[in-house]
Amino acid sequence: xxxxxxxxxxxxxxxxxxxxxxxxxxxxxxxxxxxxxxxxxxxxxxxxxxxxxxxxxxxxxxxxxxxxxxxxxxxxxxxxxxxxxxxxxxxxxxxxxxxxxxxxxxxxxxxxxxxxxxxxxxxxxxxxxxxxxxxxxxxxxxxxxxxxxxxxxxxxxxxxxxxxxxxxxxxxxxxxxxxxxxxxxxxxxxxxxxxxxxxxxxxxxxxxxxxxxxxxxxxxxxxxxxxxxxxxxxxxxxxxxxxxxxxxxxxxxxxxxxxxxxxxxxxxxxxxxxxxxxxxxxx
Length: 283
Ligand code: DHB
Ligand code: FE
Description:
- The longest helix is centred in the first third of the chain and has 21 residues, at about 35-55.
- The strands form 3 sheets. The protein has a 6-stranded mixed beta sheet, with no helix packed on it. Strands 2, 3, 6, 12, 13 and 14 form a 6-stranded mixed beta sheet that branches. A two-stranded antiparallel sheet has the order 7-8.
- It is built from 6 helices and 14 strands.
- The chain is globular.
- It has about 280 residues and is of the alpha/beta class.
- The structure holds 3,4-dihydroxybenzoic acid and fe (iii) ion.
- Fe (iii) ion (FE) binds near residues 108, 110, 199, 223 and 225.
- It is an enzyme of class 1 (oxidoreductase).
């Protein structure tokens, strides 16, 4: 049962997520947002906030409590956690309007670029005594015409059997359960790993406290994170879930999609296996 797990701590994840975000953002080469666009989006955002204050008749006490909360989110380094869990799914939804191919899902706060490249078939780096059901995850990466994409890359990261991510939990070795797996000349890949546990937003930080104060649970269903890329193709950012998994129908991050649910089968020795193919559209 997931409820017997040790609780994740905000200290281990929040501020590390802020550092990871800053490091990736610094070299993203993203263009400056125009004055017109800032004015349009910020006006609309403020209109939404003003409207909420009017319709909910927000009091001075509540306004000051909100300020205190926002200060704590910043001090705890939890902006990536808070925004990715409560907001990113809508940004992804808008981005996916113009996309074909494999469905996307949110990136989340725990991606770390620059992991080792391993040729398929590959075993994800893991502790000698890594707990959890062994999982063989295989498939093929193709273009929208069905042609295989040789040398496609599957950049994969996941929580362990207790729901913790390496890089964001001090007790896990760096790089654990993370790698960039390079597909073969038929775009095929085979990845040996373990099934992750559901993930819990740390309950001792401001994000977790807000969820608790609103009476919402802090859980995401178990998932694998993936960035699937190939030369000349648009990278797919997605997540894969597990059929029958707890919290599938009430993901706190609202990031599940029916097309993204795996159904692994037992293949002996307690090992599970599942195939999933990816389709990448032109860049
Ligand atoms: C968060 C954590 C995740 O593992 C994820 O996939 C999405 C969001 C979060 O804590 O915000
Ligand atoms: Fe995650």
